[in-house]
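User: ok so my PI wants both of these folded by tonight, can you help

Assistant: No problem, let's get them done. Here's the first:
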Amino acid sequence: MRRTAAVDGEAEVLAEVRRIFADELGRKETVGMDDELARDLQLDSVQLLTLVVGLENRFRIALAEEDAGEIRTVADLVRLVCRRRDGGAS
């Protein structure tokens, strides 16, 4: 049951990433879990900040600047948001 909840949580966060990507960034590309934020999606620092702030607001979490080092792909970001939302510090 725990794994299903985790998958559901990741799906919810991914859906929000896609919404922000389309609605707030005006981007039309399909966003997948394996996409790299810089290389594949070509997000600049302002776009990345928009994405992060949108996720923080939607899920009522705080992502630290130190978290940036572990974020390369959409999956990395989704999992970090899920951990923060579920009360995990790392």
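One down. Here's the second:
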Amino acid sequence: MTSMEIDRPDVVAEVTAAFAAYEQALVDGDPDRICGFFWDSGRTVRFGIADHQYGLDEQHKWRAAQPPLPPGRRLVDPLVTTFGPDVAVVTTRFGYAGTAATGRQTQTWVRLPAGWRIVTAHVSTPLPPTPPVDHEVDGSLEINDCRQPHDQRSGVGRARR
């Protein structure tokens, strides 16, 4: 297996600049500029909070119909991780003025002949916490501890009825 350079400073700087320009287009509410940062392909995928688009054409139609973002968008802990000279993942949390940062955003960027482009993106907000689910197994009650691999949970938190 060949070694790969992770987080080459020059590549991180290039992707950071592209991501900042994308964010500015997003804040400006310019659908053409926003879509210009995505790979012009039917294989481009974007999963939003309550929407999804497959292909740049679907995304452009969706973006053109969207209202502007709320004012005061801010990013929290953006992270650019690069893999060699041509692939990067950007993650960040985001929020708006007067609210806690609750949104999450992940983008995969690839250096294409046209420059750095987003090939897939995912935007989400966390669900409110829910209590753990109890599962009944063979007449006993098993409490799943998700911090342990499944094969190590045997007998953990089990109680007979």
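The first strand starts at residue 45 and ends at 47. The chain has three helices and nine strands. Good luck tonight!
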